[in-house]
Amino acid sequence: MKKMMALMLAFVMVTTCMISTAFAAEPTPEVSVSFEASAIIADSDVIDAGNRNESLPIRASSSDYDLGSDGSLGMTIKNFKAGTIRQSDYNYKTNSTKIKISMKSDISVSVKVKLYDAATNSLLQETTTTVGTVFNTTVTFSNLTSAKKYFIKYENLGQQDVDISGTISA
Question: 79: alpha, beta or left, given left = phi > 0 and alpha = psi -120 to 50?
């Protein structure tokens, strides 16, 4: 009886080792990234009146907007496709130490908002937030200076196309 039990236990151990070894030997898939020339569009082919497409071959906008002297500016991102990035049309100046973005969407969506230094194209700050349909969601970037210009990129992290509207102010 003891020999039978020892034999069954040995069989179970060998079978378990074979199964775990078989799964561990599977190769990991490789990730391949390629870029097509058709993905780059001309500056005149702006996606909508509110924002530029991420694939534009420019670092920052050619237009400036002074939030301090000109006041707040309305922003609209129409037909914001899931998984895409849009860039603001303007480089913003502020007379305060902050830029505040207030947004509302037609469908609740998660959005990553990034602030860049327009002179160096370097990412300064970023945050991820849920933009709702009823109340405005506010993103505030602080510790800024009036001596620099900034631009903004928005990334639709949701799984649906949305329309976002709001304001940008100092």
Answer: left
